[in-house]
From TrEMBL:
Keyword annotations from UniProtKB, A to Z: Antioxidant, Oxidoreductase, Peroxidase, Redox-active center
Protein name: Glutathione-dependent peroxiredoxin
The species this protein was found in: Diaphorobacter limosus
Enzymatic class: oxidoreductase
Residue ranges annotated for the Thioredoxin domain, each copy included: 2-168
Family: Belongs to the peroxiredoxin family. Prx5 subfamily.
EC numbers for this chain: 1.11.1.27
InterPro entries xref list: PRX5-like, Redoxin, Thioredoxin-like_sf, Thioredoxin_domain
Catalytic reaction annotation: a hydroperoxide + 2 glutathione = an alcohol + glutathione disulfide + H2O
Function according to Swiss-Prot or TrEMBL: Thiol-specific peroxidase that catalyzes the reduction of hydrogen peroxide and organic hydroperoxides to water and alcohols, respectively. Plays a role in cell protection against oxidative stress by detoxifying peroxides.
PANTHER family in alphabetical order: PEROXIREDOXIN, PEROXIREDOXIN-5, MITOCHONDRIAL
Length: 168
């Protein structure tokens, strides 16, 4: 399992952006993890699935609500990762109103989750291989803190915990 001090894995995530920006930005667009994290402080959190109850009712809304405070505490970007495709993550972003607050990044084939060792096997529940619920503070591509939830829990990966770690 990835640990504090480790480099993020050399993987590619996907992002769907609904609003056209410079060039052809809509997507889905490939996001090279190493390039995207270089020189930045990132509050990254991962969830088992888009549109699932805890993820939609608590996890993402907490980071959206705390986005300004996290950025004031030194975070450049907030990333939400889930083992879903970019189109689902784009629809979830619209539903959760994450624009300009949280980047909703798809780990469609669980490559990031597998590379970090933070997978969650939900095959018996019809969900397949997913990401565990966790958060990490990433500085210039290296893990500065890591908060992995126990199965079925939501106690240490929330935005308030991340904000507290940033202020400590």
């Amino acid at each position: 399992m990835i640990k504090v001090g480790d480099q993020l894995p050399a993987t590619t995530l996907m992002e769907y952006i609904e609003v056209e920006g410079n060039g052809c930005s809509m997507g889905p667009n490939a996001v090279d993890v190493h390039k995207a994290a270089a020189g930045k402080t990132i509050a990254l959190f991962a969830v088992p699935g888009a549109f699932t109850p805890t993820c939609s009712n608590q996890h993402v809304p907490g980071y959206v609500a705390q986005a300004d405070a996290l950025k004031a505490a030194g975070v450049d970007e907030i990333w939400c990762l889930s083992v879903n495709d970019a189109f689902v993550m784009g629809a979830w972003a619209r539903d959760q109103k994450t624009a300009n607050k949280v980047r909703m990044l798809a780990d469609g084939d669980a490559a990031f989750a597998k590379a970090t060792g933070l997978t969650l096997d939900l095959n018996g529940k019809g969900l397949g291989l997913r990401s565990n619920r966790y958060s990490m503070l990433v500085k210039d591509g290296k893990v500065a803190s890591l908060n992995v939830e126990a199965p079925g829990k939501f106690e240490v990966s929330d935005a308030a915990t991340m904000l507290g770690q940033l202020k400590a």
